[in-house]
Write a structure and sequence with these properties.
The chain is an alpha/beta fold and 297 residues long. It has helices spanning 11-22, 34-53, 61-65, 91-104, 120-124, 158-170, 187-203, 209-220, 226-233, 235-247, 259-265, and strands at 3-7, 26-30, 68-71, 82-85, 111-113, 133-138, 147-151, 174-178, 279-280, 286-287.
């Protein structure tokens, strides 16, 4: 197998690094913060042990973990076969990263972005070789969800698009091919519309997050409800998604309520901090909704 540079060691970057290592790739996991790398490696170790105990890994957890090298620089871009950017959903930040990658990586090296909303064409403008920029939008928790959107920018080469599909399949994931580069692509446009309505219902006191999630699971066959999904990804992540959609002119997909922004300010970021739309035990078990948990909702 080859090697992959994953940029960003947060929830998504750590998950992407883990599945690449599980598939046999050598992974360079990069983040400018040493604390983020330490947490990512700890989370990956915990995840691998859980999967290993369930018999879901081909290799021992320690072998997989040994394929991951933490780094605080982008220099590995010059020697890897794939680069996957998984930084915060901030366009200026991504443009800066891709501009630097363009000077470090070989012109033949694919530069992928895990952006969930920003058109690939906009990110590719930071490079001299936009034909080698592609979208690989993973869904989290990455080790557990099999979906990856493969997005073709206006100048992404057809050959790279095919390579992107094959790479996703090599990770044991299922690619959804997005042929037209629009904000939010396919799945997030659908989910943003659903989440906007769900948040409105909660903000107006029509129903609780638990009732909405139960309804979507039992009535529409969702494996997880919208608030479970939001808590897993992080409310701060969805706040950034909303800001990005608004900046891109997608007003129909922007939250009408400021509930999520208020919750972020209160530190209710979701499962990763033990409280979001739900409360969580230190072991990660989700506790039932209680109205008193949400002052001002």
């Amino acid at each position: 197998m080859g090697s992959v540079l994953v940029i960003g060691a947060g929830f998504m970057g750590a998950g992407i690094g883990q599945v690449c290592a599980q598939a046999g790739y050598r992974v360079h996991l990069m983040d400018i913060k040493a604390t983020a790398l330490d947490k990512a490696l700890s989370d990956i170790r915990w995840s691998l042990e859980k999967l290993g105990n369930k018999g879901l890994l081909k290799d021992p957890p320690q072998t997989i973990l040994g394929r991951i090298t933490p780094e605080q620089e982008l220099n590995s871009a010059a020697k890897v076969e794939w680069v996957i950017e998984a930084a915060l959903e901030i366009e200026d930040l991504k443009l800066k990263i891709f501009q630097e990658l363009d000077s470090l990586a070989s012109p033949e090296t694919p530069l992928a972005t895990n952006t969930s909303t920003i058109p690939i064409t906009r990110i590719a403008r930071a490079t001299q070789h936009p034909e080698r920029v592609i979208g690989l939008h993973f869904f989290g928790p990455v080790p557990l969800l099999s979906l990856v959107e493969v997005i073709k920018g206006k100048k992404t080469s057809p050959e790279l698009f095919e390579r992107g599909v094959a790479f996703v399949q090599s990770l044991g994931k299922t690619p959804v091919q997005v042929q037209k580069d629009i904000p939010g692509f396919v799945m997030n446009r659908i989910f943003c519309a659903a989440l906007r309505e769900a948040v409105d219902l909660i903000a107006k006191g029509v129903a609780t997050p638990e009732d909405v999630d139960t309804g979507m699971r039992l009535g529409y066959g969702w494996n997880a409800g919208p608030f479970e999904i939001t808590d897993n990804a992080g409310l701060d992540t969805w706040a950034l998604v909303g800001q990005s959609m608004k900046a891109l002119g997608e007003e129909d997909l922007v939250f009408r309520s400021d509930l999520i922004e208020r919750m972020v300010k209160e530190g209710r970021l979701g499962r990763k901090v033990g409280k979001g739309f739900y409360q969580y035990t230190p072991e990660g078990k989700r506790l039932p909704w209680r109205s008193e948990d949400q002052s001002g909702v």
